């Protein structure tokens, strides 16, 4: 596996690959890799000539400095895993290298970012759009792979690709879960044993909400699910929403013809986790 940290090196190398007619599959990550990331990598590898993975904990998408400071950083182990999985190129720049020029451009995704993650993490999607745009320019992928776990992020990136005419295909893969249902996430590493034991209740609450919605209006079903979560003192719910799966706007009712997603964010101690379920 080749490893680059300099922007000019990755840019030159992917330029050469393009000239050779190679198809590039790209998986952007923030590292501390798990099976969710590796599933994306396997797909990128099997559907393209060359698989590129980036590992970069992007400072400008963190609204909470402590979350940035404590984000798991395991670059050596990540590189080993990627090599084992047949990744061709790892791009792992430093923050200084990536933001030698402080990014000044700002994005506004309208209603898409005024709900859920956008509403609770001011500046988050601006930071995501900034780094994803830079990465797309540097890596020049034909296909870029993302996870459904960050459902709103995927919608934002779809908008970004449309608005800026990036010539690539976006691919979204389903959520990979631990055997007890907890959505795999790098931040799970920060949970203490008690928090880790309670964490699967988040997915259970989505299943609970899903069941309630079969017979109960949204507001009441949400209330009952919030009460279910409130019975676990370790969990502090930030939001629980029933939304349109593409626009991410809250729905008044669940109907068969409207793609629907159940989304939540919650804290266990100071670790903030998100999860969702498509109906
Ligand atoms: N459990 C999962 N299943 C499928 N894809 C995932 C999963 N977890 C993360 N991804 C995807 O991997 C890509 C990189 O995500 P990222 O590096 O932020 O990992 P993460 O595990 O989501 O970390 P965290 O949520 O703690 O930031 C994103 O497209 C994300 O949606
Ligand atoms: C897309 C991404 C790599 C941008 O930093 C990040 O938001 C993530 O890992 O989902
Ligand atoms: N996986 C989403 C990146 C973030 O939480 O900042």
Q: How do you describe this structure in short?
A:
The protein has eleven helices and nine strands.
Task: Describe how the helices and strands are arranged.
Elements: E1 2-4, H1 7-19, E2 24-29, H2 35-46, E3 50-55, H3 65-70, H4 75-84, E4 89-91, H5 95-98, H6 116-120, H7 124-139, E5 143-147, H8 151-163, E6 169-173, H9 193-198, H10 200-213, H11 218-230, E7 235-244, E8 260-268, E9 271-278
The chain binds adenosine-5'-triphosphate, pantoate (PAF) and beta-alanine.
Characterization of this structure:
Homodimer. Keywords: ATP-binding, Cytoplasm, Ligase, Nucleotide-binding, Pantothenate biosynthesis. This protein has about 280 residues and is of the alpha/beta class. It folds into two domains: about 1-175, Rossmann fold, CATH 3.40.50; about 185-279, 2-Layer Sandwich (Pantoate--beta-alanine Ligase, Chain: A,domain 2). It has eleven helices and nine strands. The chain has helices at about 5-20, 35-45, 65-70, 75-85, 95-100, 115-120, 125-140, 150-165, 195-200, 200-215, 220-230; strands spanning about 1-5, 25-30, 50-55, 90, 145, 170-175, 235-245, 260-270, 270-279. The strands form two sheets. It has a six-stranded parallel beta sheet, sandwiched between helices. Strands 7-8-9 form a three-stranded antiparallel beta sheet. The longest helix is centred in the middle third of the chain and has 16 residues, at about 125-140. The structure holds adenosine-5'-triphosphate, pantoate and beta-alanine. Adenosine-5'-triphosphate binds next to helix 2 and strand 5.
């Amino acid at each position: 596996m080749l490893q680059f940290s300099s922007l000019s090196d990755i840019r030159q190398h992917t330029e050469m690959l393009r000239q050779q007619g190679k198809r590039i599959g790209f998986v952007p990550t923030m590292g501390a890799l798990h099976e969710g990331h590796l599933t994306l990598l396997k797909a990128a590898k099997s559907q393209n000539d060359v698989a590129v993975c980036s590992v970069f904990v992007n400072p400008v998408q963190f609204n909470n400095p402590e979350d940035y400071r404590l984000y798991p950083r395991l670059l050596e182990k990540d590189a080993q895993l990627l090599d084992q999985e047949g990744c061709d190129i790892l791009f792992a720049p430093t923050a200084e290298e990536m933001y030698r020029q402080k990014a000044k451009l700002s994005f506004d995704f309208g209603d898409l970012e005024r709900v859920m993650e956008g509403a609770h993490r001011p500046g988050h999607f601006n930071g995501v759009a900034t780094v994803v745009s830079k990465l797309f320019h540097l890596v020049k992928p034909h296909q870029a792979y993302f996870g459904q776990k960050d459902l709103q992020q995927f919608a934002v990136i779809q908008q970004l690709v449309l608005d800026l005419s990036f010539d690539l295909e976006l691919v979204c893969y389903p959520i990979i879960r631990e055997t007890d249902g907890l959505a795999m996430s790098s931040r799970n590493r920060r949970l203490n044993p008690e928090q880790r034991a309670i964490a699967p209740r988040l997915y259970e609450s989505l299943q609970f909400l899903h069941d309630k919605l079969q017979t109960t209006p949204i507001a009441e079903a949400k209330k009952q699910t919030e009460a279910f979560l409130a019975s676990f003192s370790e969990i502090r719910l930030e939001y629980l929403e029933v939304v349109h799966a593409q626009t991410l706007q809250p729905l008044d009712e669940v109907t068969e013809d409207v793609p629907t997603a159940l989304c939540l964010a919650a804290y266990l101690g100071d670790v903030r986790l998100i999860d969702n379920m498509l109906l």
